[in-house]
# Entry
Amino acid sequence: MDRTLKFALVSFATNTAVAAYYLVFGIVTSSWWLLTLGSYYLILSLVRFVVLQTPKKEHFISRFTGWMLMILSIPLAGTVILSVVRDRGQQLHMIIMIAMAAYAFTKITLATIKFIKARRSTSATLITLRNISFADAFVSIFALQRSMLVSFKGMTETEIMIMNATLGSAVCVIVFLLGLNLVRNRKILFRSIDH
# Structure
């Protein structure tokens, strides 16, 4: 458990730094996409911080996180619609794209490892952190895909729009379901009743 919490603290610090980067870069470039992404990561970081700070109120925090993820899926859906209708993204340098890819794939790998470890766990904190990690990782994958389609040639405008709409919608549904899982998770509910 201590090791998991250490990883969660590192993730919190990393997410906060990434959120700050996106927010500053979004303000400088006047990009609503980067501002939204930065806000998403910042809120996710704050939720993760709350989970780490209140281990004795596991059931409440788990349900709170679930509701936050479901609520966050709504503005995320709005950004997907806007990215299809208005802004297809900005072309980025290859080094930035490689860094984004490494970051996104590291996140999805760590989230998968956490899922395997927390699969049979009844700890509300572990289950909550697992779902936050997946919500974080899937949005990173969407952001990576959106930037890659613009930065590397080979697809038409229509194909880029279809890809953004498809993956973006899937990510919104996944984030919503991760939240719903926390709100309705019986393992967490029974554990809180036992305590």
Q: What stands out?
A: The radius of gyration is 17 Å.
